Amino acid sequence: MNKVIEISNLNFTYPDGTRALEEINLDVYENETLGIIGPNGAGKSTLLLHLNGLLNGNGKVKIFGKAVSKENITLIRQKVGLVFQDPQDQLFMPTVYEDVAFGPNNLGIPKQEIDRKVSSALEEVGLLDKRDNLSYHMSLGEQKRLSIATVLSMSPEILVLDEPNSNLDPASRRHLINLLKSLKVTKVLATHDLEMVLELCSKVVLLDKGKVIDEGETKEILSDKLLLEPHGLEIPLSLLLNR
Predict the structure, then answer these.
(1) What is the CATH number of the domain that holds 50?
(2) 83-131: pLDDT as tens digits
(3) Is 117 inside any structural domain?
(4) pLDDT digits (tens, 9 = 90+) for 70-81
C-alpha cells in the first residue's frame, strides 16, 4: 500500500502558549479511512488543519511525498480536500452551483469542464436537483453534503473531515455515513461519534492533550474500556451488544 500522509515529530503551540500537538507521528495509506478520536481539546482539529497547510507547526508533514510548505501549497490543496465542522465556514456563495464551482473556477478551468465537475460532485452527494437553490436555505444535513461537494469538485485524493455529523438528525447522519462509504478516496475524519468510526474506519488514532495515546485496528481500540475511559470515551453500544 502506498503511504499518502506522513507526519513526523509534529509539534504545534498556539500564540497564547497552548501546546496543542506534541511529537505526533502518524502514517496514512492509500484508500484507508482513518478515525481520529479523543475528548474536546485533544488537538483533533489542529491536527487536521496541518494536512493542507492552514496551520504549520514544527516537524514534518508530507502528502504523497511532498512537504506541506509554501512552495507546494497549491498542489497540496488540490490533493487534500478539507471539510470544516460548520458548513457556514465553507459555504459563502449565493447558490449551490456557485459554491461548488468556486474552487475549480479559481484554478482557471474552462467553463465546460467546471460544469462537468460541479454536476459530478453534486450527483455524488445527492444534490444534483438542487444546483440552482440558495445554499443558506438548505437543511443542515444538505449543507454538510454540499460542503463535501465543494471539495469533491476539486477531485481530491484525500478527504479530511472535521466532525462531519455534528448536530445532524438520525436520517441525515445515516445519509452522510452512506455517502462517505461510497467515496473511493483516502479519508481522515475526526469525530466523537464512535459508532460512525466503527462503521467507516479501518484504523483509529486516540488523541488526548495533543499526544497520540494509541493507534490500531478499529475494533481493537474501541473495545478497550481501560484505554477509552480515562479519555472520556465509552465502548460503542453496538460492540457491547455483540459481546
Answers:
(1) 3.40.50.300
(2) 999 998 999 999 999 999 999 998 888 999 999 999 999 999 999 999 9
(3) no
(4) 999 989 999 999
Asked whether residue 140 is assigned to any structural domain, the reply reads no
Spell out where the chain has E strands. Answer: 3-13, 19-29, 33-37, 58-63, 66-67, 80-83, 158-162, 186-190, 203-208, 211-217
Q: How many CB atoms lie within 10 A of CB 210?
A: 23
Predicted local confidence at residue 107, as pLDDT: 83
Instruction: Determine, yes or no, domain membership for 135.
Output: no
* Secondary structure (3-state) at 126: coil
- Which residues constitute the domain of residue 37? 3-87+159-241
What is the value of pTM for the model shown? 0.93
Across 112-143, b (16+ Cβ under 10 Å) vs e yields: eebeebbeebbebbebeebbebebeebeebbb
Q: Number of structural domains, the chain?
A: 1
Contact at 8 Å (CB) between 166 and 133?
no
Name which of 151, 227, 242 is nearest 195 in CA terms.
242
- 224 located within any domain: yes
Could you tell me if 145 and 125 are in contact, meaning their C-beta atoms sit under 8 angstroms apart? yes
Q: What is the pLDDT of residues 131-148, one digit of tens each?
A: 999 999 999 999 999 999
Among 137, 225, 145, 230, residue whose Cα is nearest residue 179: 145
